Amino acid sequence: MKGSNLLLGILFCAKAGNGQTAFRPATPSARLSIKASKASQKIVLDGKLNEADWQLCENASGFIQSQPDQGTKATFGTTVKVLYDDVNIYIGAICDNPTGKVYVQDLRRDFTYNDNDLFGVFIDPFKDVQSPVQSFLVTPLSTQRDLLIYDDRIYDLNWDAVWKAKSTITPNNWSVEIAIPWSTLRYPSDSTSWAINFNRNIRGLNQITGWSPWPLAYSVGRMAYSGLITDIHPPKTKMNIRV
Question: Three-class SS of residue 142?
Fold first, then answer.
C-alpha cells in the first residue's frame, strides 16, 4: 500500500497545472546561450535592425510555448540578437507575424502584460535567484514596461529605468531595437556571462512563448530556467545618480 501511494505521489509531482509536464532547470553546461557582439558602428534606434553589425552577430531563436500548450514550438518564430558598445547594451528582435495583425490595447508606460503583443528581456547579471530580475518589455507600438521581479513572486512596477526602445511593423513581422545604458543596470564589475531570457506574447493566438522554457507553474522571471548571454564586456560599474 505504501509503495502504491509513493508511486502515485511521484506521478502526481511529474505533472503541474492542467496536466502540463514539469521539468528541472538545465545543468550549467546544457543551458542555452547567446554570444554578445561589440558594435563597430553607431546603432540607430529605428526598430529596423539594418546596421551591418546586426547581420553579423549570433541569433537566439526556437521559442517554445509556455501557454497554452507548454513545450510546443511557437506558432510564429522570434529571432533575437545582442550587441553592445561603451554606452549601451542593445537587444534586437524580429517577431514573425504572417497575419499582419498586432494587438496593443494600452499605450501607457507599464502597460498591462496580458492584453498586448510584446517582446520582453529579463536580465540577472549576478546569476543569483535572490537578485531582482531587471525586466524590459516593448509592444509593436514602442510602448515600454519595466519592472523588477523578486523570486518570481513579487513584481515592482515602481522601478522606472532609463532606457529606449523603438518598434516597426511590416506586413510579415514586427521588430524592435532596445538600448539599455550600462548605468541603468546593476552587474558585477568582472562579469562576462549573465543569466538572460527572452519572451514574447502573441496576443492574437493567446500564446506566451520563450527562448529558454520554464514550467507552467512559474513565469519567465524564474531565472533558474533562463539561458546565458556570454562574451559580454560592460564597463566598470560606477555610482548611478539621477536627478
Answer: coil
- Assigned C-alpha cell, 107: 499605450
List the grid coordinates of 218: 512559474
How far apart are alpha carbons 59 and 68 in whole angstroms?
25
238 contacts: CB under 8 Å, gap ≥ 6: 183
- What's the mean per-residue pLDDT of the chain? 89
How many residues does the structure list for the chain? 243
For residue 171, cis peptide bond before it (omega within 30 degrees of 0):
no
Lowest mean pLDDT among 15-29, 60-74, 133-147, 225-239: 15-29
Intra-chain end-to-end CA distance of the chain, in Å: 67
Asked if 115 and 106 touch (Cβ cutoff 8 Å), the reply is yes
- Of 222, 204, 202, nearest to 214 by C-alpha is 222
d(CA 208, CA 191): 30
**122: which 3 cell numbers?**
529579463
CA-based max dimension of the chain? 69
Determine the residue type at 156. Answer: D
pTM above the 0.70 mark?
yes
Q: Could you tell me the sign of the dihedral formed by the alpha carbons of 37, 40, 45, 47, in that order?
A: negative
What pLDDT digit, counting tens, does each position of 4-48 carry? 343 333 333 344 444 456 788 988 889 999 999 999 999 999 999
CA–CA gap between residue 1 and residue 84 (Å, rounded): 60
Exposure class string for 86-110: b at 16+ Cβ within 10 A, else e: eebbbbbbbbbbeeeebebeeeeeb
